[in-house]
Amino acid sequence: MSITNYSYYSEASRLPVESQECKIIDNQVVEISNLIVYSFVLSADVQVSHHIANEPLQKWYQSDSGCWVIKHAVDKPVWHRVHDQLNNEFHYHVVARMSTKDQTFFKLKFQ
Fold first, then answer.
1. What pLDDT shows up at residue 61?
2. Is pLDDT of 47 > 50?
3. pLDDT tens for each residue of 55-67
4. Position with higher pLDDT, 40 vs 27
5. What's the CA gap between 2 and 37, in Å, rounded?
6. Three-state DSSP class for 13?
7. Contact present, 84 and 12 (Cβ < 8 Å)
8. Which one, out of 46, 64, 67, 92, has a CA that is 20 to 30 A from the CA of 77?
């Protein structure tokens, strides 16, 4: 599983936030929601920042936390680029849908 999708947003407050949902996994009801698992910032002065963003995304993907998220995410993680016009920066966020149990483990171990 790899990070495949991305989208553009003009404000950080407009990141896609889905309410919690419940799914039945292994005959148990599991709460699932989004979690920002990795973030970084690039200057908007760079013309093709999404190409330059590939390096930190790949490093994260190959890190311990990235491998753990890929293994435990319910859907493929996606990345979003948010343009901060005030500071002339692009904020990149990797968002994964995980169970609340996995989110708690991730926060305790990797954040």
1. 93
2. yes
3. 999 999 999 999 9
4. 40
5. 14
6. helix
7. yes
8. 46
Helical (H) or strand (E) element with 14: none
pTM score above 0.90 = no
Contact status, residue 94 vs residue 39, Cβ threshold 8 Å: yes
What CA dihedral angle connects 44, 49, 50 and 55, to 10 degrees?
Answer: -130
- The residue to which tokens 């890929």 are assigned: 70
Residues near 92 by beta carbon (within 8 Å), at least 6 away in sequence: 39, 40, 41, 42, 53, 56, 57, 79, 80, 81, 82
Please name the residue that has the structure tokens 């919690």. Answer: 20
The rounded mean pLDDT for the chain is 82
